[in-house]
Design brief:
Chain lengths: 181, 181
DNA sequence: GATCACATGTAAGAAGTTACATGATTCT
DNA sequence: AGAATCATGTAACTTCTTACATGTGATC
């Protein structure tokens, strides 16, 4: 099954938590600092129609005539698509280019059968590997960078090092949760 | 002057360091982990033509006939545009949605008159403000998030906390550099 | 019945992606 | 000459942005 955009999965996950209207979804984005999604109608409504076209969500007939509030909820296929997406392990490419997408996946993982532990294990490996790559670059070809460029590079490196520490704590928290029920 | 895309500024900055061809620029992106830019020709060449259309870069006539290597360099207007861009202070919105763009600006700031210190000062204020916002959310409306969602939120928070520490060190490094010449 | 908040939609354009096409040079 | 590599270009598609348009219900 072809995949949707980050926004598409964000909407699908939110609708899985609770059926909502496009307007509700916009308010989620405009009132919480959860992601970096735009609350613009020009993004949300087309994304919803995309999901409808894929038959991942549906609005229970109702609300004919005029433009009333349309509440969407996932179909069986939509729930399946969400599950499959949540089960995907983190790739190196996502670590480098799409960290937000990985965190979105994690955020919805409570709804998942296995819980976050397998995902976090894979993520830990990939993020450590990426830090090693960045460190190798800094020690090798990147050694002679001018001050500002080196500072900018170190910002990225420090960000990923923080994620290495975070993921270890996250794994511990998930383990503790599983043991204590 | 209207602004260009992140990729456009990346190209402009690189060409300011050293005149290059599109192919050279692609290799920069494919062989260094500096940014998250794609090395795809479908992004690079149209972006170069955009910069040419704006008269920010030019390829010294030469290389007529057939498809030979075309080496671009910034025009006077291009250098001016780069300078103005580098002089822009970091905004909160960029901190939240476009950290990479800020780091790109910093990376080219060695070429700048003032050096990175004013930029870093503004950046420090904005990133601290954003951390405070995230902490307020976690303590207030976000207090009841399920485990996975909270972990994902904390990943973001820890990333920004790491940037608060990084920016303090970066300011110290820039100060030390200025004093010691 | 005017006005405001709720709610959805759309058009135009920007910029990227993937995949393909093609010319020029160098190496064997 | 053939193959690999250097080098540029383009078409189709996707998705987002900004800005505008429009309908519906509640309140004054």
């Amino acid at each position: 099954m072809a995949h949707d955009s980050t926004l598409g999965y964000a909407l699908l996950g939110l609708l899985h938590q609770l059926p909502r209207s496009g307007y509700d979804l916009r308010k989620v984005f405009s009132t919480t600092p959860i992601g970096r999604f735009s609350d613009s109608p020009g993004a949300i409504y087309p994304a919803l129609r995309r999901l409808v076209r894929r038959r991942w969500i549906a609005a229970p007939a109702a609300a004919r005539g005029g433009r009333r509030r349309r509440v969407y909820e996932p179909t069986a296929a939509g729930r399946r698509a969400l599950s499959e997406w949540l089960a995907r392990p983190a790739t190196r490419d996502e670590v480098v280019r799409d960290w937000d997408l990985l965190m979105l996946r994690l955020a919805f993982m409570t709804e998942n059968a296995q819980g976050p532990e397998p995902f976090l294990a894979g993520l830990a490996a990939e993020v450590r590997g990426h830090v090693a790559e960045l460190e190798a670059f800094l020690a090798g070809p990147g050694a002679g960078m001018p001050l500002s460029a080196r500072l900018a590079f170190e910002s990225g490196l420090e960000g990923y090092r923080a994620q290495v520490r975070w993921v270890a704590r996250a794994q511990a928290a998930a383990r503790a949760r599983r043991r204590s029920g």
